[in-house]
TrEMBL record, chain A:
Homotetramer. The lineage of its organism: Bacteria, Pseudomonadati, Thermodesulfobacteriota, Thermodesulfobacteria, Thermodesulfobacteriales. Pfam families: Acyl-CoA_dh_1, Acyl-CoA_dh_M, Acyl-CoA_dh_N. Residues 122-217 form the Acyl-CoA oxidase/dehydrogenase middle domain. GO terms for molecular function: acyl-CoA dehydrogenase activity; flavin adenine dinucleotide binding. This is Cyclohex-1-ene-1-carbonyl-CoA dehydrogenase. Residues 7-117 form the Acyl-CoA dehydrogenase/oxidase N-terminal domain. Keywords: FAD, Flavoprotein, Membrane, Oxidoreductase, Transmembrane, Transmembrane helix. PANTHER family: ACYL-COA DEHYDROGENASE, ISOVALERYL-COA DEHYDROGENASE, MITOCHONDRIAL-RELATED.
From TrEMBL, chain B:
This is Electron transfer flavoprotein subunit beta/FixA family protein. The keyword Oxidoreductase does not apply. CDD domains: ETF_beta (cd01714). It comes from Thermodesulfobacterium geofontis. GO terms for molecular function: electron transfer activity. InterPro entries: ETF_a/b_N, ETF_b, ETF_beta_N, Rossmann-like_a/b/a_fold. Residues 23-214 form the Electron transfer flavoprotein alpha/beta-subunit N-terminal domain. It comes from the Bacteria. PANTHER family: ELECTRON TRANSFER FLAVOPROTEIN BETA-SUBUNIT (PTHR21294), PROTEIN FIXA (PTHR21294:SF17). SMART domains: ETF. The lineage of its organism: Bacteria, Pseudomonadati, Thermodesulfobacteriota, Thermodesulfobacteria, Thermodesulfobacteriales. SUPFAM superfamilies: Adenine nucleotide alpha hydrolases-like (SSF52402). Keywords: Electron transport, Transport.
TrEMBL record, chain C:
Keywords: Electron transport, FAD, Flavoprotein, Transport. Residues 15-198 form the Electron transfer flavoprotein alpha/beta-subunit N-terminal domain. Binds 1 FAD per dimer. FAD binds at residues 226, 251-252, 282-289, 303. Belongs to the ETF alpha-subunit/FixB family. GO terms for biological process: fatty acid beta-oxidation using acyl-CoA dehydrogenase. GO terms for molecular function: electron transfer activity; flavin adenine dinucleotide binding. It comes from Thermodesulfobacterium geofontis. This is Electron transfer flavoprotein subunit alpha/FixB family protein. Its cofactor is FAD. Pfam families: ETF, ETF_alpha.
Length: 383, 264, 335
């Protein structure tokens, strides 16, 4: 209900994402969800529209904008389909490591291709025994002359198989524990790299999630991002930036759910009147609106802080991710309830929003882990 | 390869057509115009050819000044140059008068390799302007083109007729109108170019810039004329008829005839 | 053997109709358009001529149809360069014929070929051309043509101030009628210096296979629901669709019952349609279905239940048994 003042260019951005959502996504979203298929057309449209380069610096072919604009795009796109948005937003998880830690050659080699949307990205940290406990990763990267040989596997990786660029965190020195990990750029065609099965998911079904296998995967040493031992620094710093994207994604899903159920509530006649007339219903929507506006204010406020060049963004981005994903879950669940039986039917989109929203409480660090992070940052702050 | 010229048209948003009660022509000036949807397909063809052959794409449109935002939008779809053909004298043009103006403008942009247009507009829906313009230019035309590429300096087109598809070789220059079903995927505008075009304006050519014969313009240059217009009234909802099947079927047949579903 | 006639000697002031030949066969739409044109010709006292461009007389497949047609004369132009349809050459030939025979009108069927050819001729002759005309009449010695504009509920009546009056005529707007006398058939001889050249060359032709269901773009839809009671009744909708030039749609329950393939399902889990006319036989109008067709321009519902949602939403509702009405309708339409 609050309209944020936007610049001319930000308005152009939102209109363009809206056009793409309306033309390329809206007619097919439910079908992609039902059939769990990845369609490259909306991705192609996002690429042709220059939307993959929002946060990539101008000198590498991007628009050189910040988290604020990234969130504007992600929120709007998520309104149409959070699954497609997940494929798209992975580009940011792929770009940030290179923008923040890459050397000039790496930036020149990869960023322009990412900006053009020609190469999709994936961020590969999680392993079967290392989810929340990311430090428990076992994939090894052994230096051999001018190469690194990687051995191990990752799972639950978004864009597995369809990405060209994989940011992989592996142990270069297991003895050093958390300080012994390094981040690498693995390319789709690298020898010894293969993709495992595609997972069957509860939601975000338009996106592809797979296992990745490294069997003596040989990559040139210039694929190391930053220095050896910086693996978790790269990962965590990237996630600091990425979390606002999840926040924006949550906003888009929640907005769509609220709108669809509101439309239903105001036209569904029971007992001779629209059900919105009953306080149980209208108050639920009031609560939705309260939480949504609060979540939105939080996201965009945080992005402004991040874009100002602040260094200590970990705590606030965690708060953003945690709060907004919980809000989206609450709103989507209530939205189904407000639509009654229709909400339960897969012919209607509201159940998809509910299933999509659930993942946001889990990926990019579960909300339990987020609370750990917030608690830790809190005492740092209030020393 | 020479230039590619794309002719686009601003059409009233569907549901908002207004007919001038005196001239019985569509009023364009005061309306919100959108890009004729079929023109986007033509622009996609131009975009793909531009990618493959690295040529210049010039977009022209005949219309009132409120077409300018559309031309700018088309810049974001890959046009290198935007030209608006605008003059009060053009108002009320039928397809002949329109083709005359377009042909003159296209001539002025010579030499060129290809002229692309959408198959037809959603307002006039005649599909006549592409071949008509070509005949005034004295060059070949093809309609319902689904694919187009160059081979040994000749255009090879796949075009659809009622019996199937033909592969036709044409000596350039060519005017081609593109089938709406030519592509599975049509690109959206580019964000960078949407921002770039804020600081660009299209070139505007008036009748005098093209040395046009005023007799051939607007209403006076239009041999076809609408003399009367009926607005088919949207029937009020809810006519419920009961009766024996004979009566009901008679009513059905009446409606079928009225709607042109069966012949009298 | 055809009577040969030079260009200069062609009878003047006729009404010409384009006889569209493709691979030796005359398109029936060229015969359809003769019906209204014959009436125009009678009123204005002008001859009706079918003009055909072919490469060889012996390859014509439906000469009998031409002999039975309403045309007073048929003019053939025969040259091997005319084997393939090539707009520029065909237009040159026809323009030549127009220049010499100075017809009153020149009409084309609105086929893809007709729509590609007629504008070139109109442009070269600098005359008006009306498109997709579906009605022609003579008033005060002038031909008045009418055409609808889709999407909007507007019918426009047009005239053309130039001669020849030219128009493309909507396919299916008229039916073929037969003449009482066989037309005079002539071969038009072109001068030796006429250049039979084209900048086009047809390299290949691939004929169409069967066309798939076009429910989403159909202009007329007949749809059936449970009220038709059994599968055999539903199948009769296809006969009706054939007559009306419609596509057949269905509700979810009947698809799941196996009465018809799922591709024909209209509704939230099927296809969304926006036809000009939608006729629902025995469909109650559950939300899942109506969401897929509520934007139809004109809705007809046939149902026994006056309170059914589709009945309430319809422009015209007929309260009766869908099966009975369908049977009677088909009987009346001659099936």
């Amino acid at each position: 209900m609050l309209k944020y003042p936007l610049s001319e260019e930000q308005k152009i951005l939102i209109d363009l994402v809206t056009q793409i959502g309306e033309e390329y996504i809206k007619p097919h979203a439910l079908k992609w969800d039902e059939e769990e298929v990845f369609d490259e057309k909306p991705i192609k449209a996002l690429a042709d529209a220059d939307l993959f380069g929002i946060i990539i610096p101008k000198e590498y072919g991007g628009l050189g904008w910040g988290s604020f604009e990234m969130c504007l795009a992600v929120e709007k796109l998520s309104y149409y389909c959070a699954g497609v948005t997940t494929i798209y937003a992975a580009a940011f998880l792929g770009s940030y490591p290179i923008i923040l830690f890459g050397n000039e050659e790496q930036k020149k080699k990869y960023l322009p291709e990412i900006a053009k949307g020609r190469k999709l990205c994936a961020f590969a940290l999680t392993e079967p025994q290392a989810g929340s406990d990311a430090f428990a990763i076992k994939t090894i990267a052994k230096k051999e002359g001018d190469f690194y040989i990687l051995n191990g596997m990752k799972h639950f990786i978004t864009n597995g198989g369809i990405a060209d660029i994989y940011i992989v965190v592996a142990m270069t020195d297991p003895a050093k524990g958390a300080r012994g990990a390094s981040a690498f750029i693995v390319e789709k065609d690298d020898p010894g790299f293969s993709v495992g099965k595609k997972e069957k998911k509860l939601g975000l079904r338009a996106s592809v999630t797979t296992e990745l296998f490294f069997n003596d995967c040989k990559i040139p040493k210039d694929r190391l991002l930053g220095k050896e031992g910086m693996g978790f620094v790269v990962a965590l710093r990237t996630l600091d930036f990425g979390r606002c994207g999840v926040g924006a994604q949550a906003l888009g899903i929640a907005q769509a759910a609220m709108e669809v159920s509101l439309k239903h509530a105001t036209s569904r006649i029971q007992f001779g009147q629209p059900i919105y007339n009953f306080q149980a219903v209208s108050h639920t929507f009031a609560e939705m609106a309260i939480k949504l506006e609060a979540a939105r204010a939080l996201v965009y406020n945080a992005t402004k802080y991040i874009d100002s060049g602040a260094k200590d963004i970990t705590g606030i981005s965690s708060i953003v991710k945690c709060f907004t994903s919980d809000v989206a879950m609450w709103i989507t669940e209530r939205a189904i309830q407000m639509m009654g039986g229709f909400g339960y039917m897969r012919d209607y989109p509201v159940q998809k929003y509910f299933r999509d929203a659930k993942c946001l409480q889990i990926y990019e660090g579960t909300n339990e882990i987020q609370r750990n992070i917030i608690a830790r940052e809190l005492i740092k702050y209030y020393k | 390869m020479g230039k590619i010229i794309v002719c686009i048209k601003g059409v009233p948003k569907p549901g908002m057509t207004k007919v001038d009660p005196e001239t019985h022509t569509l009023k364009r000036e005061s309306l919100e115009l959108i890009l004729n949807p079929n023109d986007r397909v033509a622009l996609e063809m131009a975009g793909r050819l531009k990618n493959n052959y690295n040529t210049e794409v010039i977009v022209i449109s005949m219309g009132p000044p409120n077409v300018i935002p559309l031309l700018k939008h088309v810049y974001a779809l890959g046009a290198d140059q935007m030209i608006l053909l605008s003059d009060r004298a053009f108002a009320g043009s039928d397809t002949l008068a329109t083709s005359y103006v377009l042909a003159k403008a296209i001539e002025r942009l010579s030499p060129f390799s290809l002229v692309l247009m959408g198959l037809k507009s959603i307002d006039g829906e005649t599909a006549q302007v592409p071949p008509e313009t070509a005949s005034l230019l004295g060059i070949p035309s093809l309609t319902n083109v689904k694919n187009l590429f160059m081979e040994n300096d000749k255009w090879i087109a796949i075009r659809e007729i009622d019996y199937g598809e033909e592969e036709v070789e044409v000596t350039p220059p060519l005017v081609a109108s593109i089938s709406p079903t030519a592509f599975d995927y049509i690109r959206p505008p580019s964000l960078k170019r949407l921002i770039e075009v804020k600081n660009k304006e299209p070139l505007i050519w008036q009748a005098k810039d093209l040395n046009l014969d005023l007799q051939k313009l607007g209403l006076q240059g239009s041999p076809t004329q609408v003399i009367e217009v009926f607005e088919k009234k949207l029937e009020a909802k809810g006519l419920i008829l009961e009766g024996n099947p004979e009566e009901l079927v008679e009513k059905l047949l009446e409606i079928f005839k009225d709607k042109g579903l069966i012949k009298l | 053997m055809l009577e040969k006639i030079e260009l200069e000697n062609l009878p003047k002031g006729s009404i010409l109709a384009y006889g569209e030949f493709y691979r030796g066969e005359l398109n029936s739409s060229s015969l359809e358009i003769l019906s209204p044109l014959k009436e125009i010709g009678k009123t204005l006292n002008k001859k009706l001529v079918l003009v055909c461009l072919i490469d060889s007389l012996k390859d014509i497949k439906n000469l009998e149809e031409i002999k039975k047609s309403l045309a007073d004369e048929v003019w053939f132009v025969i040259n091997e360069e005319l084997k393939d349809f090539r707009e520029d050459l065909y237009a040159e030939v026809l323009v030549r014929i127009v220049k010499f025979s100075r017809p009153y009108g020149f009409f084309f069927p609105a086929t893809k070929i007709g729509m590609s050819l007629a504008p070139r001729i109109a442009g070269t002759l600098n005359v008006g051309l009306c498109a997709h005309v579906n009605s022609l009449e003579v008033k005060d010695n002038q031909v008045i043509m009418a055409r609808p504009t889709y999407g909007e509920n507007i019918i426009a009546k047009l005239i053309s101030k130039s001669i020849p009056v030219m128009a493309t005529i909507s396919l299916g707007a008229f039916s073929i009628k037969y003449g009482t006398e066989e037309p005079l058939m002539k071969e038009v001889i072109f001068p030796k210096d006429f250049v039979w050249k084209s900048k086009l060359k047809v390299r290949n032709f691939a004929p169409f296979k069967k066309k798939p269901t076009k429910l989403s773009t159909a202009k007329v839809i007949v749809a059936g629901g449970r009220g038709l009671k059994i599968k055999e009744n539903f199948q009769k909708l296809f006969e009706l669709a054939d007559i009306l030039g419609a596509e057949v749609g269905a509700t979810r329950p009947v698809c799941y019952e196996g009465w018809v393939e799922e591709e024909r399902m209209i509704g939230i889990s099927g296809v969304t349609v926006k036809p000009k006319v939608y006729i629902g036989f025995g469909i109650s109008g559950a939300l899942q279905h109506t969401v897929g067709m509520e934007n139809s321009e004109y809705i007809i519902a046939i149902n026994t239940d006056k309170e059914a949602p589709l009945v309430k939403m319809a422009n015209l509702a007929l309260i009766g048994d869908a099966e009975k009405i369908l049977d009677l309708l088909l009987k009346k339409l001659g099936k």
